[in-house]
Amino acid sequence: MWYGEFGLQGRKFERHIIDQVVDGLRSRGGATPGGDTPGSGDSLLLLGEAGIGKSALLRYAADRAGDARVLATGGVPAEAALPFAGLHALLGPVLHLLPELPARQAAALSAAFALVPATGVDPFALAAGTFQLLAAAARERPLLVLVDDLQSLDETSREALLFAARRTPAEGIATLLSATADGPGCGAENGLRAHRVPRLDPVSARELLLRASPSPVDGAVADRLVDAAGGLPLALVDLPAALTPAQLAGAAPVRDPLPAGPEARRVFGPRLAALDPAVRAALLVAAAAGDAGFTATIDAVAALGIDIAALAAAEAAGLVRMEEDGVAFRNPLLRSVAYHEAAPANRRAAHRALAAVTAQVPRAWHLAAAALRPDEETADELERTAAREAAHLPVPEAAQLVERAAELTGPEERRAARLVSAAESWQLAGAGERVRDLVDRAGRLTGDLAVRGRAQDLMAREELRRGRAGHAHRQLAREAARVRGTAPAVAAALLLDAATAARLAGDTAAALVAVRQARLVSGAANGALVVEHAAVLACAGRLTEARALLDERRADLEKEVLAGGGHRTLWTGLPSLLARLGELDAALLLVDDLVSRCRLLDVTGLLPGLLVTRAELHLRAGDWDTAAADAGEATAAAGRLGQDGDAAAAQVCLGRIAAARGARAQCAAHLAQAREVRTRGQLGALAVPVEAAAGLLELGEGDHEAAYARLEQIVRQVEAGLAPDPGAVCWLPDFVEAAVRVSRPDEARRVVAAVSPHAAGSPPFAAAVARSRALLAAGTDAAEQWFHAALRVDGAGAEPFERARDALCYGEWLRRHDRAGEAAPRLAAARATFETLGAAPWAGRAGRALSAVDKIPSGTEDAAPGPRTPLPRLTEQERRVTLLVGRGATNREAARELFLSTKTIEFHLRSVYRKLGVRSRAELANLVGRSAGDIPGTAAGETLGR
After folding, report:
1. What is the pTM of this model?
2. What is the pLDDT of residues 4-54, one digit of tens each?
3. What is the SS3 assignment for 148?
4. What domain count does the chain have?
5. At how many degrees (to 10) do helices 891-898 and 902-916 cross?
6. If residue 541 lies in a helix (H) or strand (E), which one and from where to where?
7. What is the domain extent for residue 250?
8. 141 and 173 in contact (C-beta within 8 Å)?
9. Are 452 and 511 in a shared domain?
10. b/e map of 920-940 (b: 16 or more CB within 10 Å)?
11. Where are the alpha helices (DSSP H) in 389-507?
12. Which residue from 28, 210, 736, 814 has the highest number of Cβ atoms inside 10 Å of its Cβ?
């Protein structure tokens, strides 16, 4: 296989300049001696390291040649000492034209090719004859000359071809040559136009790797191969060819150094074989050293009795660079060949020497690589190292350490336990195929109930990752019952996961049973159990109980998470629990930290779920574009890992954004994908957010019957036992508004009474309940009290969209009660927030209400814009905030003046700073002072009364 077979990814510019060279031949047509004028010709030298794809580019040129004649040759190291070999390969097809050359030139070529007896060859006559023979061939038809690996040609051929290449453009001949930049005759002194071919960018590199691979490649494996290849096309084609399908799929380990494929051996094998044995031995140590560091590499080389000068010789030959952090190979394939072409005994000796001069993780790896058979002492050290370094060691590396420990373990029972431990780490890394393979191997080695129980827990969690919550719950519950008597700690872990599965299935009753059983079996409530118990209560609508349970252990839980402990349940569970309880700022700070740590430690399996949680937090906090970006990344990551549940949750988030913005087609597409996963996998927990988003879309567009029909489904399913999850999705006031609009207030009152007793557990939900009660009390004085309660709930202001909904409903109520002066600022504030969020249906509704009070025209434009100004156009609410803050008001004072929360003021100020290009309140005050009357739509001296 070669690079060009897969599309020449990332070579748009190179294809363009080659096209220019080759296309010049097409203007020529068929020239005849003394007849037509030749077309334009050109010469171009492509420079680049071995494996960069120069040969593929020359093949591309040959394919583009059309009717032109193509003459080609290439340097062969075995023929580099044989004079005229390169010329013979190039000119053989046109030797019949020798009679057209001047006699001396024809004689030189004939002598060079041993066509006539000769005692020597005149170099100039040979070069001139080469040029004239090419010119004669070009008179028959357009000619493209291709010379690959110029640096490896014999010297006489190289000099003759460079001589000709400098002159062929005048004859309408196109010449393309390739060479390494440091090769003889390949510098600027050769007089040719040159282009240095760069390595591929990461996107093109990944595309090439995936196309070239003989079997599907796991995402994490692809990441590693792309990183190792360093953008070198030959490496990207060769590396997957050297791996097994299981290794490519992530189901078998890929150890460092990566294996050398056939092309790497062909290109670099002879070069290494030609080196001095001491240099080869030093390169083997450097290849085995990895990131051991420069000092350790030098010490290991010396310990093996190799002269340090051997490394200096390798550097002088352009094979490596000696740097502070180690000996770096200039070409990643060279490292692979230097290691894997060495004898196994020599490799083990290199690793033993490196183990003696390294510590911790590097030492463990070198000991493992030096081991030839089961070695309990080395296996124990590998396992201890993985545990000791867990807080800062990438999870895949920890998994490989434990897996290698299992391979070096003799007793089958202990080997099986270590295989399961390795599988647990691989699951955190998102390597599902590897998990299944290790669990299968462990199952064949042991009948121990505890080990088999841990293995079944892993397999059930794989089911859960794929969105099959109902099946996972049943599997976990059965296994917990089986091992409860003999392995209570394993049973408790199984029951904890059973609770999670039941919660995601929407069955909080079963989840509570599992949590209580886990607590009973374990005898104590660890951090993970507390978080899961509180999460189940929150999903069931028992927010006050959930908060009380969390508050008992909160300090310890946050400390444990920040210390890097409790990966699975705490990392994913605590941020979403805080979000359900309305602590959006705390949840966002925590999830930001966890996402960063997942990226740093390659905890790939948890990343999609955390990204979904962060997307939901940004959605609620009013940063919808960031929410969409996180949800999009979560969808892609979950898709690569086969985590259908996380992908569906991300689609729900995107669907809710689309619903709020009135994008019906997008909303429907996102929700359809989520519904499919929900139905197939029994993910009942998706039912509420899916129907809530669908209902929001209809409500925003004013179709209250359709909105009621959607939202009533939530009510019916909750009555049938589905978790209402009111802290996660603000569906209650939407249902109440739809019910009131379609004259079904009694149904709404019943639902509010059922789900509101625990509202105090979450400030945003308390505000939602207050708005719901206000809508139900619309004909009484109590409505205003409830509206005030909704707007003033402490901690609820971090959700701009919902607070704008509060202001909109209150403004509409005030308008209906002939209090237009009070309604206008409420409606204006709501419209401004909706406009900032891009929630067009809601901005339109607020605008129509404003028009009805005859204070501010409807629509998103000002009725009477002020004087022309270079300042960006602000929304109405942004102008009000700008004037107040610019004239010295604090955020709290501005919030009180505009009937908003301080969080909403901060939200608008961020937008104002961005639009006006200011960075401080002082700059804003200066701008307001200079631009009084010039801020669009604002009159000089305007005041903002209530």
Report:
1. 0.77
2. 566 788 999 999 999 988 887 765 544 444 444 444 568 899 999 888 999
3. strand
4. 5
5. 110
6. none
7. 202-254
8. no
9. yes
10. ebeebeebbeebbebbbbbee
11. 395-407, 412-428, 432-443, 449-465, 469-483, 488-504
12. 736
